[in-house]
Design a protein that fits this description.
YerB-like fold; globular; single chain; mainly beta; 5-stranded antiparallel sheet; 332 residues; 20 strands
Length: 332
């Protein structure tokens, strides 16, 4: 046998021997195709969009919905307010006599019944026009209505007999979801009124102090007391006999003017949220002194904390109290 034939025979015997051996994991034969599955990284958690007026995570379809603004009269014989607990933002004005006025804004979630619907007042339009809301109002005096008309905001009243309005005991109420669904196509996605903190981010970079009770005492009005509930992480109060809660309290101190309105047959007190002034912000059991600025009718509201740092609110509903310069605010 030649040397070449012996080498070929040895190679063949080696291959035959290896064919019967397992060289991979138990049970996998060497003749089987190797496992070439690619290495897969774990999937990151899906990032959900945040509602523009609360900073809370919502479905993508909710982000672009129109905001609906509903003025609601509180006190002086008015029916107890309903629907305030569903609003993303509530502006509260200390009006004439013992009257409070709320301007409730609904965007991320509807209220089946909000009201009683009242007249729009200048502060509502001046402070909240940047949200580009669809406005529901009732019996607004011409002078106030002219200001609303100048903004070119779409508006509707119960008298137009559109779906969504109901009447009970002579008072008008609105289903904000129905109104939102029927909003004109020209309505835009609202721009955020505030900046919201990320998880673990503080209210302000410096100057925060603990606060669990906030009391606002305005002349001619019953003291309004807010208490922070650690379990729900909400500030709780009773407004016009209705329990309400907020993740944030934004107190803006500003001047009020008095004006005789013939259509209402009385003198009214009107807050003016254009300019600048002292602000006090309360969130997550903390408070901070700040300063607010709104330099023009269509300008954005800006709030800066100590050393000109931005103030970032906790995600959730916010109440904005337009505090008269004559009022007293105490915290503990």
């Amino acid at each position: 046998m030649t040397r070449q034939i012996r080498l070929s025979l040895a190679a063949a015997l080696t291959v035959a021997a290896l064919a019967g051996c397992s060289v991979g994991p138990a049970g996998q034969q060497s003749g089987a195709a190797p496992d070439r599955s690619p290495f897969v990284l774990p999937s990151p958690e899906a990032v959900r969009p945040r509602a523009p007026l609360t900073g809370l995570e919502v479905d993508a379809s909710a982000v672009s919905k129109t905001a609906v603004l509903v003025p609601i009269e509180v006190g002086t014989g008015a029916a107890a307010p309903v629907g305030l607990d569903r609003a993303d933002i509530v502006e509260l004005e200390f009006a004439e006599g013992r009257l409070l006025r709320a301007a409730a804004v609904y965007q991320s979630q509807p209220a089946d019944k909000a009201g009683p619907v009242s007249a729009v007042r200048p502060a509502d339009v001046k402070l909240l026009n940047q949200l580009r809301p669809y406005v529901a109002h009732n019996a607004t005096p011409k002078g106030f209505l002219d200001l609303l008309t100048a903004t070119k905001l779409a508006a509707v009243t119960p008298q137009k007999k559109l779906p969504g309005f109901t009447t009970a005991a002579g008072r008008s109420y609105v289903n904000t979801g129905t109104l939102q669904a029927g909003a004109p196509d020209s309505q835009l996605e609202p721009a955020p009124l505030f900046q919201y903190a990320q998880p673990g981010e503080p209210l302000a970079a410096t100057g925060t102090t603990p606060a669990t009770t906030v009391v606002v005492s305005a002349p001619g009005h019953a003291a309004l007391t807010w208490k922070f509930d650690e379990t729900s992480k909400r500030w709780q109060a009773t407004v016009g006999g209705a329990p309400v809660a907020a993740a944030n309290l934004v107190l803006l101190t500003m001047p009020y003017t008095k004006k005789v309105v013939k259509a209402l047959k009385k003198e009214v007190a009107l807050a003016d949220p254009i300019g600048e002034g002292k602000a006090q912000i309360f969130s997550s059991g903390q408070g901070v002194e700040a300063h607010w600025y709104k330099t023009g009718f269509y300008s954005a509201l800006n709030i800066l904390g100590p050393s000109q740092y931005l103030v970032r609110l906790a995600p959730g509903p916010t109440w904005v109290l337009l505090v008269p310069t004559t009022a007293k605010v105490t915290t503990s």
